[in-house]
Every structure is written in C-alpha cells, then in structure tokens.
Amino acid sequence: METLHALSDVLQIAEDWSRDGRGVALATVVETWGSAPRPVGSHLVIDAAGDFAGSVSGGCVEGAVVAEALDVIETGAPRMLEFGVADEIAWRVGLSCGGRICVYVEKVA
C-alpha cells in the first residue's frame, strides 16, 4: 500500500477494514521534537495481517510501529511508543533524520 494518505483517507481505510471484520489499530503521532519527519496528528492504520496505510515517520519506524500495533490488536492494550536518537533502541530502530517522536497506538476495531 502507499504509505502517505490524508487523515480522512486513513480514517476511511480504518473504517473499511473494520467493516470487513479485520482487527484494526490506529497509530497517531502525539509529540515531536527536533527534525521529526511527520507532524503531530499524523496517522498510520494497521490491520491484523500487518497491512498498513498512512505514515508516522516517513518510513523510519513504521515497521516497529506495525509490530507493536499487531500486539495492541491482539491484547486490546494501548501503548505509547517513543523513538529518537536518545533511546536505548536508537541503533536498532531510530529516526534517520534525528529528532524524536512519540506515537500512541490504540485498537479501534
């Protein structure tokens, strides 16, 4: 799928997937610092098969967000994710442009 969609498109995709009976999670950028590639309010919608649409980081951390979202879909427990150069996981999953982002992931269907 394309990775960048307008907010209304991402929410429509989430609604369509939910209507199709798929488990769905929504990831939302809630805080940024420095040269974060996506602004606060950017969204990524993920289904239980790992399909996704939208973007929270321009490709820097989408894989990690999708992996966390799959667990959120399964458990129903939302979580806050933080990515940046100061994180202990910065060398595994980080922002190539520097900066920091916080992404809230919640189950929506």
From TrEMBL:
Highest taxon in the source lineage: Bacteria
Pfam family, one: XdhC_CoxI
Ranges of residues in domain XdhC- CoxI: 17-84
Protein name: XdhC/CoxI family protein
Organism for this UniProt entry: Aureimonas ureilytica
